[in-house]
Amino acid sequence: MGLAKNQSRFQETVLPQKKQHHPEQVIHSLADHWIVKENVQIGYINENFLLISSYGVYAIFPQEVRGHLNMTPRGFTVEGQHQTPVVQTIQESVKNFEKRLGIKVQPIVLYKELWESETHNLPLGPARQEWDSGDIKILSWEGLQPYLMSRVRWYLNWPDLMKICKRLREMQY
After folding, report:
1. Which positions ≥6 away from 120 have C-beta within 8 Å?
2. Where is the segment annotated Disordered (predicted)?
3. For the whole model, what pTM was predicted?
C-alpha cells in the first residue's frame, strides 16, 4: 500500500516533456478545405508538401537541421550552418514552378526546432516561431500550424482551386 502511494506521488512530480509534432502530423490534421499534395516536383526538389486552399498555395520544404537561428543582412544560419544555398535553390525552384502553375506560391522552409540567441537578459514574450528571409517564410515545426491557421484572407475561389489542381495533374505527367 505504501509503495503504490509513493509511486503515485512520484508520477505527479514528473514534468511533462515538450511534445514535438512532425510536419506530416500537422499537415494531415488541417481542416478539410486544405488540399495536401506530397512530393510534388518543384524544380530539383521533390521532398516537400504543397498545400492548396482558398488562402493560397504554400510549398513546405522540411529540413533536418535544428538549433540557434541567426539572421544577417545576407541570409541566415542555423546552428552555424549557412542556409543560403538551401534558400537560393528553393527560390529558383519556386519561381519556375510559379510560372508553370500560373499562380503565386508561398515557400516555407520548415525546421525541426529553432531558437534565437537571447540578446537581452529578460525575455520579452513567447518564443518566436516565424521569420522571413526575402519572400521565404522560415518556421519551426511547432510554428507551422499557427502560421497556417492565421491565414484568414481568401485569395482563391472554388473554380480557381480546381484549375490549380488540374494544372498540377497535367504537370506531373
Report:
1. none
2. 1-20
3. 0.78
Convert the pLDDT of each residue in 66-81 to its tens digit.
888 888 777 888 888 8
Residue with cell 525546421: 111
Pairwise CA distance, residues 76 & 24, whole Å: 25
Taking CA atoms, 4 is separated from 1, 7, 9, 13, 16, in Å, by 5, 5, 9, 15, 21
The region that residue 79 occupies, defined by phi over 0 for left and psi between -120 and 50 for alpha, beta otherwise, is left
Three cell numbers written together for 133:
528571409
Amino acid at 158: W
Burial bucket for residue 124 (CB in 10 Å: 0-12, 13-18, 19+) = exposed
Residue 57 and residue 38: Cα distance in Å, rounded?
13
